[in-house]
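I'll show a record.
***
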Amino acid sequence: MRAQFVMSEIGVGLRRNLTMTFAVIISVALSLALFGGSLLMRDQVSKMKGYWYDKVNVSIYLCNKSDAEENGESGSKACAKGAVTPDQKQQIETDLKKMELVETVHYESSDEAYKHYKERFGHTALASVVTPDQMPESFRVKLKQPEKYQVITTAFAGRDGVQSVEDQHQELDNLFTMLGYLNLAALGIMLIMLIVALLLIVNTVRVSAFSRRRETGIMRLVGASSFYIQVPFIMEAAFAGLVGGVFACVMLGAGQYFVIDHGASLRTKMELINFIGWDSVLTKLPLVLVIGVLMPSLAAFIALRKYLKV
C-alpha cells in the first residue's frame, strides 16, 4: 500500500466534502466536550463529597425555656417537659462519648450560638430582635464514619431535653442529588450530539463513496482489496474525529483555566468548595482523543460495508 496515494485520496475526500467535514468536526467536538465535562463533574462531586462529608457535624439541639413554652402552647411533644436540665445535659454528653462511632463532641452554649448567629446573619432585620436566651444550646458531634450519621439521630431524637437532631449531611445529599441530575442532563445532551455526529459521519462517507465510485471501481478491477479501498474513507473520518477531539480538549482546558483557576474564577469566589485540579483534566484528555478517533473510524467502517458498492 502506497502511503502517498492514501494521503492524496484523504485530501481529495476532505476537499470534496469540506462543509460536511466541518459539521462532523463541530459535532464531535461538542459531544466529546460534554462527555469530558460529565467525567469532570463526576470527579468534582466525588471530591466535594469526600471533602464535606469529612467536615460536617451532627448537631443535637437542646431545649431551652422559650422552646418549652412555645411547644407547650402548641401541644408539641418536643421539649414538652421543659428546658434541658444539667443532669440531662451531662447524660447526653456521656452517652455520646461512649459511642465508638463518635470522634469528638463539642458543646456550644447559648452565648456562643448567639455570637455565631450574629456573625452570619447580623445584617438581617431578624438579627436585631433575637436575644441570646432564644438560641439553643447544642452538641456538635464529629463522626469517624460520617455516612453513619443516622445512628446519632436514632439514638437521641425524642430524648428528654433534646429539641431536635439535625445532620448537615441531608442538605449535602440534596445538593449532590441535584448535581447528579445536572450531570445526567449533560450526558443526555452528549448522547444526542453523539448521535448527530454519527449520522453526519455516515452521511459524509456515503457522499464521499458515491462521488468516487468511478475511482473505487477502477481500483477493484485492477485487484485492490476491500481494505485498501476503504482505508482513505476511514482515515478521513478518523482525521475529522481527531480534530474534533483536539477542539474538545481545548474547550475542557479553557474551562479549567478561565472558569475555575484564572483571575476572578470560581476558585477565588467560592473558597469553601474544593475544586478539581489540572490532574483530573489531564487524565481525561487522552480518553477524549482516543474516542474522537475510534468513534468516527468505526462509524465509517460500518457505513462502508453497506454503501461502498463497486
Residues 3-52+173-308 form one domain. Residues 169-211 form the longest helix (43 residues).
